[in-house]
């Protein structure tokens, strides 16, 4: 029997797009297209098993070897810093990690900057690199309202189109890092399922180039 | 004394086998104290996996630490005799922060160090022992070998800042070629070098397959390192390790300490490296010593999941007794069971959730079988 290659896909549109690329790479699993609530799909013939997980959990599944490979946003990789291989920049799911604040915000360097964010680690590292003293307010959603309500001075969050920011009278002050989807692999799996993983990586790379 | 090996847990067996393996090759066991002066670790902070250390003040006012690492203590306590080679192994607990729980953990480490006149033979022997250590754990293993000399030469050609060098090593460790390209572009490095580093990052395979490509890529630098890597890996292949030894430049250790061969071992079924090591002459240089050194450590805690057998039963026999049971009769019944090699517990009631093969009950006549599961 072939050993199964376990693939963690991020739930949602991004994951579907990624699955299509894996299918083109020769690792199809037709049952995944059926509309039901199942989370795990197998194609024993191709030796592949897909599962849908919360996008922010993909890196954990891969780091701990429950998944051999997966696709995760660079934001998640920067936040959790998992010990994995980051084999490809897939070039889609593009956005940026940015510092945003109310339009009339002026930074007062004499004060500790209060930063609201879902990405505490990224915010901490970014401001440490600037030598700026900050206070981190970790929130799990609706980050945009933090500065409006006076909970924080600025926010560190993902900015895609900037519409949400605009509607809340916020604007981007600094881009920390550009974000896109990355193809990642568990370090041990890379050794023991090297042929399959390399095949997928090469095909994905070609598909990106041909776009 | 009669020791039943079946009582040893999987990782304990591994530890015993590793010890006997290292003894066979003339390594002697090194025992040390749990504590070390904190100062030692401060001076060599980057050599450690993490700078989180448990400290306490000793009775004489000295700041002490619970060892986060064994190698530094061995080097500190070894004599600097560059002409001869001291070979030691250890089996010690270290105290480090676990990434997952963010709290301190006691971690068992088994490893060896070869200090003194480290020549190609010593390096070869250490690599062989690393491979043999992995084979003790599982037949399905891989030892990834890399050479810091090659990596260092290449990275230095890029002429980056210290932070830039750190970033590029990190990207190399992640096989993150798009990041390598980005760093090179940002720092106006030559395209030729950037392509070379990317290709080195992507190279992976058996030594005889990838060595020719490495020689092409690195034709104009680090000739000694490349020759050494080729020589060692080809002898290892000839000695029967060909399938298991792979070259992989994503194995990178701190350039400030490691200078030669570095390696990481994986076994199928464990999601992280279970063995890591390398040659670290630069650490000794920092300590003003002339000796060289190479060594590695195995992390048996990573094997727990791989090695644990799921037991069908917790115990062979449960004997139920009551207030009226004669103590002598009960004692005889228990003795009879244990002498026949069965595990037994005498209880008033069956403990909740206990899985047993056989349930016995003491009554006036003796022992009565109530339940037989196997």
Short description:
The complex is a heterodimer of chains A (211) and B (374). Chain A has 211 residues and is of the alpha/beta class.
How would you sum up the major sheet of chain B?
Answer: 9 strands, mixed
Oligomer: heterodimer
Q: Any idea what the shape of chain B is?
A: elongated
Query: What structural class do the secondary elements of chain A suggest?
Result: alpha/beta
What can you tell me about this protein's structure?
The complex is a heterodimer of chains A (211) and B (374). By secondary structure, chain A is an alpha/beta fold. Chain A has helices spanning 13-24, 58-63, 74-80, 120-130, 145-148, 163-167, 187-192, 194-209, and strands at 5-10, 40-43, 48-53, 69-73, 85-89, 95-102, 113-117, 134-138, 154-159, 170-179, 181-185. Chain A contains 8 helices and 11 strands. In chain A, 41% of the residues are buried. The mean pLDDT of chain A is 92. In chain B, helix 1 (10-24) runs antiparallel to helix 4 (120-137) and helix 7 (177-186) runs antiparallel to helix 8.
